[in-house]
Amino acid sequence: MSNYALILAGGSGTRFWPLSRNAKPKQLLDLFGSGTMLRQAVNRVSGLVPPENIFILTNHLQEAEVRRQVAEIPAENIVAEPARRDTAPAVALGIGLIAARDPQANMIVIPSDSLILDDSAFRALAEDALNLAGREAALMTIGIRPTWACPSYGYIERAGKLSAEGLTHDCYEVVRFREKPDAATAAAYLASGNFTWNAGMFIWNVAHVRAQLATHTPQLADFIDRLTGASDLPSFIASEFPALTPISIDFALMEKADRVLNFEATFDWDDVGSWISVGKYLPTDEQQNAANTDLSALSASGNIVFSANGKRVALVGVDDLIVVDTGDALLVARKDCADDIKKIVADLPANLV
To answer: Are 191 and 146 in contact (CB under 8 A)?
Structure first.
């Protein structure tokens, strides 16, 4: 069967202000000097499917930059959602676009803003899952084995390991999806050993996922049915997509599906959720200051420094700060306030958002 990839690239990324802006959020930035996260995501799936089988969903603010960064993707495969409707309508739109090409296709859905360094391991697992999608009546996820009791991720509870011919990676039956837990519950999940983090990566056969949507989320199934028969796709999407109910794909489908399988990732993964995450991948000095630029530090430790223009930064007598300079804006924040950076964006002038 034909394999396709759907890349979700419409997030806002306000936690990365001032580097991130509405028209150029996290997935469109080169945070680590190795290409933008969108560029890396496209490279990652290009080893699985040809460029003509890669679809990218974004929004109108970011559409031009997306097209510039991935010029090899056919223009008709890059679609700007006319309204923000969360992940379930976005995924349904992608399913419909692919179903219009190949009703029996297998497809993988990935976010554009996750950091994965071992692309070879990712492709090997994804190929295994895509092959299984054509044989098993199940929706599939890729889960990350927890390394700590993180309360900020969703969790997937698993049961027994699947035994299937030709399967080369560990795959488990899913008991249920668990929402973001409190700290004590997250610790219990970690101790049990039968939970993975929900990384928002899905694999399925198009015909099967449409049948599951018809059972559990008829509005989205109807939208897909009408999309595949539309004579003018841009007009149909512009008029019909905004009417869809905003809801996540987990709530709309994955938590209700008749059968879900969970592949355990054999590759590294980081959702790069804040400047704290970025700091883990920047060069670090003896005082554990992480920086992407020349840094002079005196009695200063544990800081994260990012300069968009290579400016030398000097720190004296300060610890555990985030300092980000973009030329037109400067952020100085305590590391323990990293999650609050998104809150200040609402108070900024429009030209800096």
So the answer is: no
**Which helix (H) or strand (E) is 250 found in, with range?**
none
First-to-final CA distance of the chain: 44
Report CA-CA distances (Å) from 165 to 136, 259, 302: 11, 19, 50
**pTM score of the predicted model:** 0.94
CATH of domain 3-264: 3.90.550.10
- Tell me: pLDDT of 285 over 90: yes
Partners of 173 in beta bridges? 261
**Helix 218-228 / helix 87-101 crossing angle, nearest 10 deg:** 30
Which structure tokens are listed for 252?
């709309």
Name the token pair of 216.
């559990």
Question: 327 to each of 70, 201, 309, how far by Cα in Å?
Answer: 27, 36, 7
Is pLDDT of 284 > 90? Answer: yes
Residue 33: the pLDDT is 85
Dmax (CA) of the chain: 66
What residues have CB less than 8 Å from 253, skipping those under 6 apart?
A: 88, 139, 209, 212, 213, 216, 217, 220
The DSSP string of 201-241 is: EEEEEHHHHHHHHHHH-HHHHHHHHHHHT-S-HHHHHHHHG
Amino acid in position 272: V
Residue type, 94: G
Q: Where are the domains of the chain?
A: 3-264, 275-352
Q: Tokens 């101790």: give the residue.
A: 191
